[in-house]
Amino acid sequence: MGNQKFIFNKLLEIFIIFFVILTLLFFLFRLSPGDPISKIVDPMLSPEDTLHMIEQLGLDEPVHTQYFIYIKNFFSGNLGHSFHYGEPVSNIIMDKLPCTILLFTTSTILAALAGVFLGKISAWKKGSGIDSFLSISALICHTLFIPWFALLLLWGLAYKVGWFPLGGIISPELWIENSSAFMKTLDVIHHMLLPLGTLFFIHLGSYLLLMRSSMLSVLREDYIITARAKGLSERIIRDKHAAKNAALPVITSVGLSLAFSINGGALTEQIFTWPGIGRELIFAVSNNDYPLAQACFLLIAAVVLIANLVVDLLYAYLDPRIRY
């Protein structure tokens, strides 16, 4: 019953926060410098045609009127039409979202699994050469500047050596031909390897250091001493007792990382011309495409808020001592 009340209160809190974010985003975009009309209207159009287009987009109404119309449309499932593309924003989001989920979810999960495993080994071998090597490597990965590292990989492995494509997600000529599904899958993986490698190494360092720190703290707990006194093997103590509880902070970090990955890591997608939400977000903000930019930010906000709830519930499931 306590958990049900917690979930209800949390959902109510999420709704209120989301509504506040929705309102702030609406007015912030309207107050920002720049004019969306100048980006999409042909300079050769007559003033009458330009005015007609402004009326069609609803930009001739007062801001407060636009706000109430937007709220009404939003809660009826209408996110509006993109000023630039001229099509429903929901269609654009659904077209770009799978690419972002594919790349960033894969990189986050792989980095988390590797980070937990290596962090566990590093903490268990504290003070050894392995620990020093893993800790220094993790620090280097954690402090890498993403644009520099991504451009370095792109320049060295794609431009100079030619092992990987320079960008995109597919080779158009392969998809125009009647190639097999297997070949098309390999083509996507080939395009994904460089951005995936960039994100993997960036995230790996933080997960490894977090797991190492948490593991060192857990190894000082009384139940670990008791497990040793019972004669349990070192492997069972490390993997079954210490690592499970030490992984809780990592789970929180992974949950939030997966949520924030919906924004597509805009810089990474831009550098590798990966057709995801992050790249679309940069384009929408640069061109004052209000409906598209708002929808991207709202998607990020919704996923982050829900991820917080899921992480809280996972904590209670994984650690019996936690109750709400």
Helix fraction bin? over 70%
How is the quaternary structure best described? single chain
- The CATH topology assignment of one domain is MetI-like fold
The mean pLDDT is 79
Q: Output the structural class.
A: mainly alpha
Number of helices: 15
- Percentage of residues in DSSP E strands: under 5%
User: So what's the CATH class of one domain?
Assistant: Mainly Alpha
Shape: globular
CATH architecture of one domain: Orthogonal Bundle
Give structural attributes.
mainly alpha; MetI-like fold; 324 residues; single chain
What features would you describe in this structure?
- By secondary structure, this protein is an all-alpha fold.
- The chain has a domain of 223 residues: MetI-like fold, CATH 1.10.3720.10.
- The protein has 15 helices and no strands.
- The longest helix has 38 residues.
- It is globular and about 85 Å long.
- The chain starts with a helix and ends in a 6-residue tail after the last helix.
- The mean pLDDT is 79.
